[in-house]
Amino acid sequence: MNSRIAEHPILGTIEKGKLVTFYYDDKKLEGYEGEPIAAALRAAGVMVHRHTQKKGEPRGIFCAIGRCTDCVMVVDGKPNVRTCITPLAEGMKVNTQYGVLEKSARRSEETA
Amino acid sequence: MKRYDLIVVGAGPSGLSAAIEAAKSGLRVVVFDENANPGGQLFKQVHKFFGSKEHKAKIRGFRIGSELLEEANRLGVEVILNATVAGLFQDKEVTVRINDAINHYKGDAVVVATGAAENIVPFVGWTLPGVIGAGAAQTMMNLHGIMPGKKVLMLGSGNVGLVVSYQLLQVGCEVVALVDAAPKIGGYGVHAAKLARTGVPFYLSHTIIKAEGTNHVTGVTIGQVDRKWNIIPGTEKHFDVDTICMAVGLSPMAQLLKMAGCAMENNPQKGGYVPVCDAYGETSIEGVFVAGDVSGVEEASSAMIEGRIAGIATAEYLGFIDKAELTEKAETLENALSSLRQGMFAPENKGKLIEKTEEGYDISTHLLQNGFFTDQEVEKYPGVTKQPGVHAVIECSQNIPCNPCQDACPKHCIKIGDKITSLPVIDEQTTCSGCGLCVAACSGQAIFLVNEDYQEGYASITLPYEFLPLPAKGDTGWALNRGGEKVCMAEVVGVNTSPLFDRTNLLTIKVPVDMAMKARFFKGGSCHAQG
After folding, report:
1. N or C: which end of chain B has fewer CB within 10 A?
2. What is the spatial distance between Cα B416 and Cα B405, in angstroms, rounded to a whole number?
3. Do A43 and B146 touch (CB under 8 A)?
4. Is A37 an interface residue toward B (CB < 8 Å)?
């Protein structure tokens, strides 16, 4: 699904940085430098950012302004990064977060 | 520890306005904001604002944001971004988190303008990816150029729900339904009418039963509620959607003020837990002021005025101006503020059912329940007249604080008078030139030019059009009525994209003459808006 707005009837063309590649769970994706990681993920059709600690429920973008922390992911090895307000950079490694720690990934995957 | 005359918390409309006024009086001002960009929510507001000419009516929100920023910069206001104010203490010491460090600042005065946060309604499945706040939808589409989804259901019929739904249509999303548990539409009728005529159905007295999907939203079920808000069995309706958007009100973010020890109150008219403050926004702690939504949820227009008042008051508090100057400057602003708080949507009318306008016209219950008038109802309002040749038809039926149409007309056909909430009246003694300035100036897009003498058997209708692709002269398509139903074929006979209209383009369509007072929207072969 192409969810990028080519031209807005009021804003015209929305200015973007340069096109860069980044990695989402080891998959190569493209996005624009400086836009929130979450925006690049949504444009690529990614909805699930993390799974909760206890029940493993999926979570994604909710407030998009850094307030709710529903969209946190493991970014370049650091867990709990709010992807809706963290700018995308070339070569970033963005991984789905399981629970609240970067290390809990494997354990949650085993139980899933 | 760094010192300033004034520390402002929040670089939104009220915070920037406070900083501007204080800096004008010579104060050294710093503004902290936790976001990467200043302007608060203004840069997401692509619609034209209501209000009066003096207070930025008919200007789009994002342009107001740019104007405020420029003015603040020119006056030497320091704006520090990515800076979260984490603490406010009684001696006006402020702790600010910048990167991963806590920094200390001290102000001789402080203005807290932290705004408000979105409320949520929990329902089964509300935590699924694809359930988002209306603010998130605005942020994604208007700041980052991303469609939040393809098919969206909006919960909440206040102005935020109505305006964001319209913005979703503008970027090509489909709004499958607008749902509210209340029995009537909460926001302005004109905002609802903009949606209804494109075909968005309204479900009042309905709420969400559940969001469906395993990993993300794939559908939603709504149902009708009884007077005790219980779902009436058998009324369930399902929609295939990928996005559910919540616009169910805002709550003031007053935590810093509570922390500082300000006297607080729970005030439902102001939207929740707010600091007690005087007319200048001063709290129970001397020198600590508030402005904007943090002191009571309202529109950005009133937030800017409150900010200006607070800014001037800090200047007086610190001795930069005297009491007489404060009284004089504040009086004009207070008058403007009180005019914005008049009318049917005034804070004291929250939740009340108003049946008649101030002038004594019936309020349309059909409008309040469906988002549009019946053909009979519309004719009784003073902006709707039947005249030979081209003339403006103003479908404005509620007392809201707004008057740009009156100033827009070079022929003085439109009268509102001194009371900004009065319904516009068409003066039948004057002659409309058909210029269309009023059509583009109406923030509610409620003005149409109608000419029943366009051609033998045909009328022309000029309507505001803010969608892409813009139809071209000669295009044919459907004319839709106020409820979004296809009523007849229509031909585009004029497209006016004058820069004066600020992207509210004017489309003139030709329809059979009996459709002159029915057709209100055009749906071409491939237009974005649904029908």
Report:
1. N
2. 9
3. yes
4. no
Q: Find, in chain B, the residue whose alpha carbon is nearest to that of A52.
A: B127
CB B494 within 8 A of CB B439: no
Which pTM value belongs to this model?
0.96
- Which residue segment(s) compose the domain that A70 sits in? 19-111
3-state SS, A65-92, equals CCCCCCCEEEECCEEEEECCCCECCCCC
pLDDT in tens, B98-149: 998 999 999 999 999 999 999 999 999 999 999 999 999 999 999 999 999 9
Residue A60 has its nearest CB partner, among B130, B147, B172, at B130
> Domains in chain B and their CATH numbers?
2-117+250-340 (3.50.50.60), 120-246 (3.50.50.60), 365-523 (no CATH)
Distance between CA atoms of B484 and B10, rounded to whole angstroms? 41
- Taking contacts as CB-CB distances below 8 angstroms, the residues of chain A near B172 are 5
How far does Cα B365 stand from its chain's mean position? 22
B229-249 pLDDT per residue, tens:
999 999 999 999 999 999 999
Instruction: Choose from B126, B146, B215 for mutation: most chain A CBs within 10 A.
Output: B146
Tell me the C-alpha distance between B449 and B494, whole Å.
12
User: Do the beta carbons of residue B111 and residue B9 sit within 8 Å?
Assistant: yes
